[in-house]
Amino acid sequence: MGKIVVLAEKPSVAQDIARVLGCRERGDGYVSGERYLVTWAVGHLVTLVEPDELDERYKRWSFDTLPILPEVIPLKVISSSRSQYAKVKKLINAPDTESLICATDAGREGELIFRYIYEKAGCKKPFHRLWISSMTDEAIQEGFRNIRDGAEYDGLYESARCRSQADWLVGMNASRAFTLRYDTLLTVGRVQTPTLAILVRRRQEIEQFVPEGYCTLSASFGDYSGIYFSDKLEPDTHLKTLEEAQAIAAQIQGQQARVEKTETVRKRELPPQLYDLTSLQRDANKLLGFTADRTLKLAQSLYEKHKALTYPRTDSRYLPPDMIPRVVQTMHLLPEKYQRFVPGALPEGKLPVTRRTIDASRVSDHHALLPTAKRVNPESFAEDERLLYDLVVRRMLAAFYPACEYDQTRIVTRVGEHAFRTTGRQVLVNGWHEVPATEKPPRQRKGARKDEEESEVPLPPLREGETREVKKTQIREDTTRPPAPHTDASLLAAMESAGRELDDEELARLMKGSGIGTPATRAAMIERLLKVGYAERKGKTLQATDKGVRLIEVMPPELASPELTGKWELALHQITDGQQDPARFMAGIREMSTRLVAYARTEARPVRFPQDQARGARGRRTGKSAQAALPETVCPLCGKGQLRESSKGFHCTEKACSFTVWKDCLTRGGGPMLDAKLIRLLLEKKELRGSTGTLVMRENTLLFYPQGSDAPSVRRAMVYERKNGE
Fold it and tell me: What stretch of H or E contains 410?
């Protein structure tokens, strides 16, 4: 009897599978047992070749060689993974290897990793597919009991292959064409470009916003108060001028007020749904300050290393019915500090079943993200891992709690011809609010604008026709505010919902479920925009750079719109289901690549990209990093050298001096991203006050105090060990 080779994606996953299968003998790049041999594809091992590896003439970027449209895009071994590839190739093609099991991540990209290795190695052995949603021993055992024939996933592979090759064709051709057109290194892609367009649109909305002043008028009737409103205003509580507000206040002061209408409506606030990856990333950004990329890495560690979470790269917020017993078991095995919440989620010991949580038709490749049915000790996790695990546990519990029920009361009080609105809310059943979203709910930021109409004010019992006297009035002056800059959370939401406004109903339906990118790729796309200089972080916000704005200005509309992604996703779903011919899809991609090259060459309008960005681009192409000295600065550590700016920080020009400060060293605590202007001012003034807080330079330490706080949220020594000359 021959061996069965199991190919996992990472060594840690391979070790878990090997342990469950009883494989204990360690070899060179694998673990073996009596029947199974488990190896791994760390680094992915195989990818598509670069254009200059297809043909020498593509080494020189020129319009004469565009578009690049090979009928077949060959595969190559990734140089950094060459050693492991050789081991895997030898194992899967060994004479005593009977068959293979694909145990890479259970999704489109995981399927592609295995198939590319299988194809490049020229393997002809039969293979099966392991499809699991958690890395617990029980889940792995169940997966092997229900092993599936590899041919069942041929459609998924074709979809993944088409996505990979289409991204190559569009990216390589469009990036080269627009780089040549503007003599600035530009990268273009069908997910990257519409994502950038979202950031550019928000920046333009902020820059073009014209603030307008307005006033609100409130009146106190003794035991309750109300805010002035009119059906002639937009919004209906905003008075345009102070004079108008003062005139109404003078008319009503001391006058009799009459309760014109009182209405109480019973309402229900449904519990939140379970997490998929994108919704987890959004909450982790809002509640914990994690970037989308950080959240994904933490979730992956909790899945692979600690076996504490189910598969994180899921796009579903639902569970199939057969998961009900597993969820009950999971709740009973939660750490002790969560047990006080369990009875509310399991009334009478049973899991409440609704379509908001249990719906097999809404489960795609994987179910919603959950804690696993395994006893874990969160105190043994790294701090950020523990915080993210806590978020997922609390969401699972809250999702099965009853709805919050409350009485919403609305009162209209009239004083002469003027009307005032009062709202009140009385909670009857707290429901899922009994489970706080985090163990330490975020504090209300001082200075934050409160809702103009307080909904939690306790109201006296009032009947229509009752009268009161206007005791006092209050006028508040304010100005309209521009849209807030995007954060990771809001950009993820915009990517998820992009395209719902499309005219094509089928495209809009598909985009409602997928948006731009996938849950597994959105975080990487945000990091990609930052890396190539199209976007930058400023504190907790994400903003398009000048280079990013210029790029969207010169892009053809189809490439900057989510419509392109919608069409691709629709086609890829159809390929997975066997409803579309992959060759037809790729023919369309080649046609589009040709159009994009022609557009860049003849139709793209002249635009000047920022010179510093262009110089940086040329530097990257020649392998040199752009660095600039800051004139008239003196190093605060040695007092001799000047400061020099690099892509990631500032350091002293004196070789013997170790002064270094990273540009992003304060952002985790809500502080600003450091730039040359801030560094100069800090050296001069030692203390700077801004809209978000106060920045202080004290000896060799930077302190950031949030607005209204006496304690620093972040304290960073400025002297770090420099790495690789950075």
Answer: strand 404-415
| Best CA proximity match to 280, nearest among 245, 243, 312 | 312
Q: What is the pLDDT of residue 149?
A: 96
The model's pLDDT over 495-530, given as tens digits with 9 standing for 90+, comes to: 887 755 555 555 555 555 557 888 888 999 999 999
State the CATH class of domain 163-207+485-602: mainly alpha
pLDDT greater than 80 at residue 145: yes
Q: Can you tell me which residue has the tokens 């920080």?
A: 649
Nearest to 645 by CA among 666, 626, 669: 626
What strand order describes the sheet that includes 535-538? Answer: 486-487, 541-544, 535-538
Instruction: Identify the pLDDT of residue 716.
Output: 67
Distant-in-sequence contacts of 353-357, Cβ < 8 A, 24+ apart: 353/321, 353/324, 356/270, 356/271, 356/273, 356/399, 357/273, 357/274, 357/318, 357/319, 357/399, 357/400
User: Count of alpha carbons within 13 Å of 689, Cβ hemisphere only?
Assistant: 3
Where does 277-399 sit in CATH, by number?
1.10.290.10
Q: Is the pLDDT of residue 616 over 80?
A: no
Task: State the pLDDT at residue 510.
Answer: 53
Specify the CATH number of the domain 3-146: 3.40.50.140
Which of 275, 303, 311, 406 is catalytic? The answer is: 311
Look over the chain and give the mean of its residue pLDDT values, rounded to a whole number: 87
What architecture is the 213-270+404-479 domain classified under in CATH?
Distorted Sandwich (2.70)
List the single range of 61-65, 298-302, 353-357, 606-610 with lowest mean pLDDT.
606-610
Task: Tell me what pLDDT residue 726 has.
Answer: 36
Task: Give domain limits for the chain.
Answer: 3-146, 163-207+485-602, 213-270+404-479, 277-399, 628-717
Q: What is the DSSP letter of 544?
A: E
C-beta of residue 470 within 8 angstroms of C-beta of residue 255: yes
311 noted as active-site residue: yes
> Look-up: residue for tokens 């991609």?
589
The tens digit of pLDDT for each residue in 88-97 reads: 999 999 999 9
Work out whether strand 127-129 and strand 97-103 pair parallel, antiparallel, or are unpaired.
parallel
